[in-house]
Amino acid sequence: MCRFIETIQVRDGELQNLTHHNRRMNETRRAVFGVSEQLDIREYTGNCPVDGIHKCRVIYDKEICEVAFSLYAMRPVHSLRLVYSDTVDYHYKSTDRKELEALHSLRGNQDDVLIVRNSLLTDTSIANVALEKEGVWYTPTTPLLKGTKRAWLLEQGVLTECNIPADEIYSYSHITLFNAMIDFGSLVLDINRDTVIHI
């Protein structure tokens, strides 16, 4: 049976953005398994670690199967390579990451990949992205995964959705990577031909 995952930031003992994590988990359970009962992750986590930033990893199918905590350290990313796949599918956050891992293996000397599907930018192998132009941050309309941090940032008006063709990437000045664990603006790259490799 396929299993799915929510990765939640725990900051000083508090689960962050839990509303969006619960929503995505329950929408996935309904779509994949036909389960309408709503679960609340908070009821399964017990006492969260209280000092610093931790990762809470929740594995589920119809029910929540496993909850684990680990200390978090952000993996540095200084460069990206554009890779192409019109068939990659990760619209549910599954524990099966074989397609993403295969694309990540194409990164060459770069730290991660920026995945292009149907000529449009989507995500890196681990994060949603936003690109800056003239002070406005734009995020791809059709990411591989609609992340929980992305949903919150859109609600707050921080991001604007738009289609970003891969061949227009150099018209933007910066790219930021973000997900549940990587705060928006904490991992930002200048966009140039040394940091973002377009082949």
TrEMBL record:
A single GO molecular function term of this UniProt record: catalytic activity
* InterPro entries from the UniProt entry: Aminotrans_IV, Aminotransferase-like, BCAT-like_C, BCAT-like_N
Query: What SUPFAM superfamilies does the annotation carry?
Result: D-aminoacid aminotransferase-like PLP-dependent enzymes
Q: What is this protein called?
A: 4-amino-4-deoxychorismate lyase
